[in-house]
Amino acid sequence: MLTTKSKSDTLDQVATASIPELKALLDSSDTHLEHELQVRAEAIAEQQFGRRIYLRGLIEISNICRNDCYYCGIRSGNERVTRYRLTADEVMSACERGYEIGFRTFVLQGGEDPYWRGERLVSLVRNIRTSYPECAITLSLGEMEYAEYEALFRAGANRYLLRHETYDKEHYQSLHPSAMAQEHRLQALRDLKQIGYQVGTGVMIGSPGQTTAHLAQDLDFIRRLQPAMIGVGPFIPHEDTPLGTYPAGSLSMTLRFLALCRLLNPRALIPATTAVATLHPEGRLAAIRSGCNVVMPNLSPLNHRADYALYNNKAYSGSEAAEGVALLQAQLDTIDYQIDWGRGDAPAS
Ligand code: 5AD
Questions:
Q1: What is the 3-state secondary structure (H, E, C) of 140-169?
Q2: What integer best gives the mean pLDDT of the chain?
Q3: 3 state DSSP class of 296
Q4: What's the mean pLDDT in 53-72?
Q5: From the CB of 238, is ligand 1 less than 6 Å away?
Q6: Pairing relationship of beta strands 338-340 and 52-55 according to DSSP bridges
Q7: What angle do CA 289, 291, 297 make, to 5 degrees?
Q8: Whose CA is nearest to atom 18 of ligand 1?
Q9: Can you give the pLDDT at residue 348?
């Protein structure tokens, strides 16, 4: 049993904590320790960014996916999804609407849809780059080869989100069909970094089969990679998937993990995700109070939002929506935070 003194020593040295020490922090049932973690994480975020939250306009460009991940609602094997892909014009209108609202980062996210690849995707990115020279373009479109990532970077993309999902190989294989290899994803992350993208990675908390030993390894991986962005949210079951009967991840574990991410990566951009907001009404604000500093409101065309259901009850209205930023600001007011309308690049190290 750790004494209070040695606990606060552990927290002082968390940046260099060993994997077993990280695991002990995740395992601890001491609510004081959990609170202390959050307080320290929030203080570091405030030191780095002030009490300010960056916004990203999230455009879900396609829910067509060649992959069949066992947890994901838009997996190829799910025949109950109404499939859609946005046209280039629809994406450009979403950017226009977003720009008018004030967004200076557009995130193009989607399944691994063969339509939105290659030259078609490159020219879409180039178009956005030309129309919005001062905006950041983030892509979140899954695994590609080096040359394709490079072409997109040259066309004007700045950032790329690709969660590693879990660092444990066996666990990775239990969440994904054998056609998917963890090594390919890790290589993609290395490629993206080398090309010069600001790279984001991350995990789901409480995915089936996950242990705190896995999560401690994930934290260590994230610490070594030093990504510019870290995306973390609870696993939430989707009824039409093989893992649809498993319970959702817990809010408390999600907040601890987020706080540790902040302590290990002080300058990272860490969103309070839609998943944490979906899990619990206070999830978004609690995540911010645990060191998060980004929110990604949904900027997809309204008629397709419900079809991008990665998990049950995914929120896409109110303060989740680009139209709801006033509501989001009102919520942020209650914890004395403000929206920052800047591009919000990762601060230089
Ligand atoms: N619950 C929570 N997050 C999910 N994702 C996919 N399916 C789920 C789910 N059922 C996450 C994955 C992916 C990101 C885009 O969404 O981590 O990387």
A1: ECCCCCHHHHHHHHHHCCCEEECCCECCCH
A2: 96
A3: coil
A4: 98
A5: yes
A6: parallel
A7: 80
A8: 163
A9: 77
